[in-house]
Design brief:
mainly alpha, 6 helices, about 0% strand
């Protein structure tokens, strides 16, 4: 599923959690957050912290891939100059540091 909104992120987390057979309380306990955080995130609360959302995906064994829209929408041309790879690598380094 390609996610574009906080609501779609919440749906992805809920679907992955249910596929694992976990309750909201079980996911919350494993993540060290409250059940209320899980509920708000699954409802698409766009104020949820990205680090915690990434932790939820990691706990649920869900990979997240960042792809430029021009690669997804083949009818779009790539930007003339793109720092996307540099930007993406920086984000991935930050995500890896959160795992430590």
């Amino acid at each position: 599923m390609q996610v574009k909104t906080a609501f779609e992120v919440g749906i992805s987390i809920r679907n992955a959690r249910q596929a694992m057979g976990w309750t909201q309380s079980e996911l919350a306990q494993r993540m060290g957050v409250t059940r209320q955080w899980v509920i708000r995130t699954e409802k698409g609360n766009d104020a949820a912290e990205l680090a915690l959302i990434m932790k939820a995906f990691a706990m649920l064994n869900v990979g997240v891939m960042v792809t430029p829209r021009w690669q997804i929408n083949h009818n779009q041309n790539p930007p003339v100059q793109s720092n996307f790879d540099e930007f993406t690598n920086d984000i991935l380094r930050k995500i890896d540091s959160l795992k430590e």
